[in-house]
Amino acid sequence: MPFELPRREVVVIGAGQAGLAVTYFLQRLGLSPAHDMLTLDRGPGAGGAWQHRWSDLRIGTAHRINDLPGMSELGLSFETADRKAPAKTVVADYYARYEEHFGLQVHRPATVTSVVDERDDLVVAFTDDDGDHEVVADVVVNASGTWGSPFMPYYPGYSTFAGRHVHTADYRSAFDFAGQSVVVVGGGTSAVGFLLELERHASDLLWVTRRPVQFLAPGDDDLEGRLAAVRMQDEAAREGRPLPSIVSGTGIATTRRIAAGIDRGVLVAYPMFTRIEPEGVLLPDGTLHRADAIVWATGFRPEVRHLAPLGLREAAGGLRVRNGVSESDPRVFFAGYGPSASTIGANRAGRSVARHVVAALHRDGSRAEWPGARKRVSRERLRASIRHR
């Protein structure tokens, strides 16, 4: 008798905000974390990408962190969290308590290495502390985020630099740059945060950006800019193009801390350098600015390498995704991708994707009842439904 791989109706890849939101809503719609679905997360603990962020990033200075759906049931909210506490610690704590309270049974650390199409099934391969494993799924929800795929644009002379290249993903503390001349690259809030932290430790700072930075007036939330950025992300996802930068369509809110940094002359952005030399960077006017380190606050790209065997990538370079569903393979769903990548968008996407997933399972005969089915379909019946599709 041939060996049968363990099966789940749904495998969720990633347990950051988007992945937890999907798992939560799937459970609400009747799927059991113990039997019907499997949520895999490569992190050593709860907290998604937040657990890897630098210690000096505080709740009060980070991007707004939206609550997970149902978090109020635990009496928790990031709105009331200690604003001076490290964001990585608070998020990890809240997410861990959330997972335990709702019994989401996230399996970690588990790194998904591939998702392969095997006729009517998707086979998810992953590694954990016990070795290599495979699980068969009817559908896969990719919520792997971006932290594992840092983006560093190429500039001539990159490899000749005698100093250090440090991406946001590798940044740990401003103390590491004490007494050094540092160039910070990027036009988003991470770059601003680095500059304000490095000001007290670095001997010299230079901030460079590809486009002028727009600081918003206090109280201006730039709703129009944010909506435009989301539309750009959605259009790119629908057309299978690489996703554009969110920062390029929005401004930076001017908090009192940021306003003070502008007044001190710390937050003054200069045009991007033209090339990198061993001793530093060459500015557009031909001046060599000496540097010991370049901090690349240049963002991330979606982490989807494990989906490569499915052949979802378009000739334009991106994935075609509409309303959280792959246009190339309707068994593959995306949460936290494109227009749903923001913290509030991840929650909304979690609800929407969960509904689409359960509807797809019901449509394919994998669920006995709809909605909110608690009765699990037998493996014999499931295999029969697959044979007769």
Write up what this structure looks like.
- By secondary structure, the chain is of the alpha/beta class.
- The chain has two domains: 7-148 and 301-387, FAD/NAD(P)-binding domain; 158-214 and 251-296, 3-Layer(bba) Sandwich (FAD/NAD(P)-binding domain), CATH 3.50.50.
- It has helices spanning 17-28, 87-102, 189-198, 223-239, 256-263, 343-363, 379-387, and strands spanning 7-13, 37-40, 111-118, 121-128, 131-142, 164-167, 181-185, 204-209, 215-216, 252-253, 269-271, 275-277, 280-282, 288-290, 293-296, 321-322, 325-326, 332-334.
- Residues 367-389 have low confidence and may be disordered.
- The chain has seven helices and 18 strands.
- The strands form five sheets. Strands 1, 2, 3, 4, 5 and 18 form a six-stranded mixed β-sheet that branches. The chain has a five-stranded parallel β-sheet with strand order 6-15-7-8-11, covered by helices on one side. A three-stranded antiparallel β-sheet has the order 12-13-14, with no helix packed on it.
